[in-house]
Amino acid sequence: MRSSRPASSFRGVTLLELLVALALLGLLAGAALPALSNLLKKTALDAATTDVALVFRLARDRAILSGRHFGVKWFSKDGDVVLTVYEDANGNGVLTADIKAGIDRLVAGPYWMRGKYPHITFSFLKNFKGLDPSGNPIGDLSDPIRFGRSDICTFSPDGGASPGSVYLSNGIDRQAVVRVSPASGKIQVFDWLPGKRKWVRRL
Question: In CATH, what number does 37-201 get?
Answer without folding.
Answer: 3.55.40.10
